[in-house]
Design a protein that fits this description.
It contains 8 helices and 12 strands. By secondary structure, it is α+β, with helices and mostly antiparallel strands. Strands 7-6-5-4-8 form a 5-stranded antiparallel sheet. Strands 10-11-9-12 form a 4-stranded antiparallel sheet, covered by helices on one side. Strands 1-3-2 form a 3-stranded antiparallel sheet. The chain starts with a helix and ends with a helix.
Length: about 300
């Protein structure tokens, strides 16, 4: 029962603070009301609130702060990260609502391979440990031994990747976890020179491919059909997305990105529902891909 009450308590605190900041008195009154309604012990003394705040941050990635001037608690937004944290929190709560024996939640049956490595990779990241593994590239016959100081785990299109410093090449590299095997931990390593800027490497990238040194960020303009544009508006391709035109004929957007293979494949995935307007180099690349497809 104590574990159930803790989970419900976290749920109540987060959802209440999502709507508006609260003083301790207001939050305490809310939890007391919920305790009576649900016939559970959901309230607690203020001196233990910091422990709950720490638990919520560790479990859900949701950061609760206090505004000293107003004495109100609020959920801290950190450059959009809170949106993904709350999304994970909502999904976690959905999974905990039942055992899904009635199949009311329909999950995708295909699952990415390699997710069994994520816990080990996360352990290596938190403890600055060298990660040794075999990596099988799709275009190579034999797997190769790699050594990596892992810095972050990245998700893209339902696949998982580990980002880190390749110690043999002394450069940033991205590895797909489904192609990793025989993971082993090495000795603790000094802090990586890339550690503070991991996210910046992907700031102007779509997907997981890193830009080459000679690439520059380009202003990309795409024109979608009004129908497909609804999807692009509801789930932007990138944080830099801006809507330039939105009418019955088209939804035109601009993006500030490197032109990578991941971006080209995303554009191709919607076929005739999108037209590339700029830059001309991307127009030519997409046109050539369509030409090759027609020849097949």
């Amino acid at each position: 029962m104590a574990e159930k009450e803790t989970l419900i308590r976290h749920n109540l605190i987060i959802n209440k603070l999502r709507r508006s900041p609260l003083t301790w008195k207001e939050l305490d009154a809310y939890l007391k009301r919920e305790s009576e309604i649900q016939d559970l012990k959901l309230d607690f003394v203020q001196r233990t609130f910091q422990r709950h705040i720490n638990d919520i941050l560790e479990i859900y990635g949701v950061s609760i702060k206090s505004d000293r001037s107003t004495r109100r608690y609020y959920i801290e937004a950190d450059e959009g990260h809170v949106d993904r944290s709350m999304q994970a929190f909502d999904i976690l709560n959905l999974l905990r609502m039942g055992d899904n024996s009635s199949n009311v939640v329909l999950f995708e049956r295909r699952r990415p391979m390699g997710t069994e490595h994520l816990a080990g990779i996360f352990h290596a990241i938190r403890n600055n440990l060298l990660l040794k593994f075999e990596y099988q590239k799709y275009y190579e016959a034999e797997a190769e031994q790699r050594k990596l100081l892992p810095l972050a785990i990245k998700e893209a299109k339902n696949r998982w990747y580990v980002v880190g410093q390749d110690l043999d090449r002394n450069a940033m590299r991205v590895f797909a976890v489904d192609r990793m095997s025989k993971l082993d931990f090495g000795k603790k390593q000094p802090a990586s020179r890339f550690a503070k800027n991991v996210e910046l490497y992907f700031k102007n990238s779509f997907g997981v491919l890193l830009a080459t040194e000679d690439q520059e960020v380009e202003n990309i303009v795409l024109s979608y059909s009004s129908f497909q544009g609804n999807y692009i508006k509801s789930m932007p391709l990138h944080e830099s997305q801006k809507i330039l035109v939105d009418n019955a004929d088209e939804v035109r957007i601009s993006l500030n990105l490197y032109v990578t293979r991941d971006l080209i494949m995303e554009i191709l995935s919607v076929g005739a529902q999108v037209k590339v307007l700029a830059p001309q180099s991307l127009v030519d690349l997409v046109r050539e891909e369509h030409k090759r497809a027609m020849e097949l």
